[in-house]
């Protein structure tokens, strides 16, 4: 079931540029891997051609014009060299396809990555989630998020933050940007939404000196709970919270990886407000574009802070 809500989004205003040491060389058209690949190709070709040309001294029959044999002699060293290298085990970083020598040689992947970096789209995926933003940290965060088409059901462009977690600097930058924003807002409770809000929430809570509250799916919490049901982009669900986890008047921040319809965040806000907390803001790493309305950002009267927007 899909519910449409009017949700506004704000993005980070923190934009001190910082080089991404851990980022891969996606912006370079020719990466070191490509150069290595070209050298191997050149060496293999020269070696093969030399063998054909001068091998006739030892094996006169080689000099006889036999195109098939000549091609074999030239290509075997190249294949042997490439097979011994990591080309076979490379994966295109933006799609789930395995990169093989025949499908996506390294140069192709660099071209692909470059197109993702510039937001021009990809020959492999129909859409790009790269936002055009001046802050290199946001660019790196956005670039590290993989988009998986038709997951978990056809038609959904799944924003996969597990690939962000593979990039420690981009992951840390995302957490730090939240910490910077909320450092002086007197937040006493950070409420993380199961499951992906648990990835970002605890680090933020610790840095802010706040407590962390897990908002969990049904029947996971052992204590007395209150529940709120909600609709999702695909299906419906329910969140639960321990009633004694938060005291009336506490200032709460709700954290999740992504806002799509806003149903999950609405349920989280309702839970916290039922317990008497004041929800200061909701924060997500990713906002889906359908939520952008008039450039201003509100969710049921609550502001939502979003680092990167998915474009598809
Ligand atoms: O804005 P909404 O339309 O409510 O959707 C956003 C929610 O959907 C995803 O979680 P999901 O429900 O898929 O659960 P999971 O994290 O356990 O996979 C995501 O992590 C958000 O919590
Ligand atoms: N498109 C999407 N990608 C990842 N998580 C989601 N939750 C709801 N919609 C989603």
UniProtKB/TrEMBL annotation:
<dbReference type="InterPro" id="IPR050120">
    <property type="entry name" value="Adenine_PRTase"/>
</dbReference>
<keyword id="KW-0808">Transferase</keyword>
<comment type="similarity">
    <text>Belongs to the purine/pyrimidine phosphoribosyltransferase family.</text>
</comment>
<feature type="domain" description="Phosphoribosyltransferase">
    <location>
        <begin position="163"/>
        <end position="289"/>
    </location>
</feature>
<protein>
    <recommendedName>
        <fullName>adenine phosphoribosyltransferase</fullName>
        <ecNumber>2.4.2.7</ecNumber>
    </recommendedName>
</protein>
<keyword id="KW-0660">Purine salvage</keyword>
<dbReference type="GO" id="GO:0003999">
    <property type="term" value="F:adenine phosphoribosyltransferase activity"/>
</dbReference>
<feature type="region of interest" description="Disordered">
    <location>
        <begin position="1"/>
        <end position="27"/>
    </location>
</feature>
<dbReference type="GO" id="GO:0006166">
    <property type="term" value="P:purine ribonucleoside salvage"/>
</dbReference>
<comment type="subunit">
    <text>Homodimer.</text>
</comment>
<dbReference type="InterPro" id="IPR005764">
    <property type="entry name" value="Ade_phspho_trans"/>
</dbReference>
<comment type="pathway">
    <text>Purine metabolism; AMP biosynthesis via salvage pathway; AMP from adenine: step 1/1.</text>
</comment>
<feature type="compositionally biased region" description="Polar residues">
    <location>
        <begin position="1"/>
        <end position="11"/>
    </location>
</feature>
<keyword id="KW-0963">Cytoplasm</keyword>
<dbReference type="InterPro" id="IPR029057">
    <property type="entry name" value="PRTase-like"/>
</dbReference>
<dbReference type="GO" id="GO:0006168">
    <property type="term" value="P:adenine salvage"/>
</dbReference>
<dbReference type="InterPro" id="IPR000836">
    <property type="entry name" value="PRTase_dom"/>
</dbReference>
<dbReference type="GO" id="GO:0005829">
    <property type="term" value="C:cytosol"/>
</dbReference>
<keyword id="KW-0328">Glycosyltransferase</keyword>
<dbReference type="Pfam" id="PF00156">
    <property type="entry name" value="Pribosyltran"/>
</dbReference>
């Amino acid at each position: 079931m899909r519910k449409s809500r009017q949700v506004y989004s704000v993005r980070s205003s923190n934009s001190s540029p910082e080089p991404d040491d851990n980022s891969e060389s996606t912006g370079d058209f020719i990466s070191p891997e490509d150069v290595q690949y070209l050298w191997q190709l050149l060496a293999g070709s020269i070696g093969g051609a030399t063998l054909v040309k001068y091998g006739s001294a030892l094996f006169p029959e080689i000099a006889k014009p036999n195109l098939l044999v000549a091609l074999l002699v030239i290509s075997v060293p190249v294949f042997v060299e490439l097979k011994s290298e990591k080309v076979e085990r490379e994966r295109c970083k933006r799609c789930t396809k395995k990169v093989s020598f025949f499908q996506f040689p390294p140069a192709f992947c660099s071209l692909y990555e470059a197109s993702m970096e510039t937001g021009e789209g990809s020959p492999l995926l129909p859409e790009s989630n790269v936002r055009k933003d001046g802050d290199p940290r946001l660019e790196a965060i956005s670039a590290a998020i993989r988009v998986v088409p038709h997951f978990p059901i056809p038609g959904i462009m799944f924003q996969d933050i597990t690939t962000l977690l593979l990039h420690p600097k981009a992951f840390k930058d995302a957490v730090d940007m939240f910490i910077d924003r909320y450092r002086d807002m007197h937040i006493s409770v950070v409420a993380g939404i199961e499951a992906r809000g648990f990835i970002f929430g605890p680090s933020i809570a610790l840095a802010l000196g706040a407590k962390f509250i897990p908002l969990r799916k049904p029947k996971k919490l052992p204590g007395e709970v209150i529940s709120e049901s909600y609709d999702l982009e695909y299906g419906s669900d329910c969140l639960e919270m321990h009633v004694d986890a938060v005291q009336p008047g506490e200032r709460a921040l709700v954290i999740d990886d992504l806002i799509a319809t806003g149903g999950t965040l609405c349920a989280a806000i309702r839970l916290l407000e039922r317990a008497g907390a004041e929800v200061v803001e909701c924060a997500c790493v990713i906002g889906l574009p359908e939520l952008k309305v008039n450039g201003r950002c509100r969710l049921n009267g609550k502001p939502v802070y979003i680092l990167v927007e998915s474009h598809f």
